[in-house]
């Protein structure tokens, strides 16, 4: 079943203009910045309102694919600062292309596998580049990229035995994980560990002992989850915490209603996109980190038998988010971005597209429902809200690694 954008766009409706911030004539640094963004976004929405027929809402698939494909072959000098994040670039690009249903040529996929193999450390895990120190963030990115490629060659890159050793080396007595040996602890590491361990079938009874309880302690009084216990709620950490608890099947440790309330209020009333924290500006990447929480929350409440749940929509304005991404986040020369005035990059391209996919596809149990703003060709592939990999690639990896024994690793 599909709904299309026949009716007026949300951003062109009369009542939309009333959603601008009111600062009660007391400007602050925050309200001034917020008004600047509303002015930029508002002028785009006003142009659309006045010339709607000249602005078909089109996802520029060709331009985005071209930008992504070029990035996979050669990165410009401005990416030098991401030298320690090269597996991330691989993941952002291959996942974005997969969402766009663009095939990755076999030879390119194979050279990505060979490159990621060179990033794998001798004692397990993946580093940001060859000969660097293994770290959980690039490990997550590398495993996600390899599972998205989904070939035998890709799966064979992952050394599951040393990966499990690496995870044990990072595990702390309180249940949390270090990001790297001797490194910092935060909710990201718990999610990265749970994600790679569940995809590659190396979860042992001891590996996540105490982890769920530690994550639950990071739920802040606002309802969202902070980086460590007592820290302000933040979209990225909240996604990591909730997705990790879904993997560990311990979501009941969270106050789900207060989490839902927190994330619902992070969708901006005027812009339609999401902010990462209370009082911050809209940013395209939170289209995934925040909106991606909604399927996880919906399914949890559904499993609890909540009768008030919709059978067609997530608990946010899916059309408003799509309008923000399509109108405000597309770079005219391909790629997507944070907000008008910012430049494109592969990170924002990946998470804007992932968020757009979440906003297009509703699914709960057997029930599927699509809400597509603009032309039907805007439809992306769905994404798995726990891993942010397309669902058939998750299934492929799980099936592949399920046939293998869980490695036996000595723990000191
Ligand atoms: Zn961002």
Automatic annotation (TrEMBL):
GO molecular function: protein farnesyltransferase activity; zinc ion binding
Protein name: Protein farnesyltransferase subunit beta
GO biological process, any: prenylation
Recorded GO CC terms: protein farnesyltransferase complex
InterPro entries associated with the record: FTB, PGGT1B-like, Prenyltrans, Terpenoid_cyclase/PrenylTrfase
E.C. numbers: 2.5.1.58
Requisite cofactors: Zn(2+)
Pfam family, one: Prenyltrans
Record domain Prenyltransferase alpha-alpha toroid: where: 59-389
Function of the protein: Essential subunit of the farnesyltransferase complex. Catalyzes the transfer of a farnesyl moiety from farnesyl diphosphate to a cysteine at the fourth position from the C-terminus of several proteins having the C-terminal sequence Cys-aliphatic-aliphatic-X. Catalyzes the transfer of a farnesyl moiety from farnesyl diphosphate to a cysteine at the fourth position from the C-terminus of several proteins. The beta subunit is responsible for peptide-binding.
Annotated TM spans: none
Keywords: Lipid metabolism, Metal-binding, Phosphoprotein, Prenyltransferase, Repeat, Transferase, Zinc
Assembly behavior: Heterodimer of an alpha and a beta subunit.
SUPFAM superfamilies associated with the record: Terpenoid cyclases/Protein prenyltransferases
Catalyzed reactions: L-cysteinyl-[protein] + (2E,6E)-farnesyl diphosphate = S-(2E,6E)-farnesyl-L-cysteinyl-[protein] + diphosphate
Top-rank lineage group of the source organism: Eukaryota
Bound cofactor: record note: Binds 1 zinc ion per subunit.
Taxonomic path: Eukaryota, Metazoa, Chordata, Craniata, Vertebrata
Membership in a protein family: Belongs to the protein prenyltransferase subunit beta family.
Enzyme class: transferase
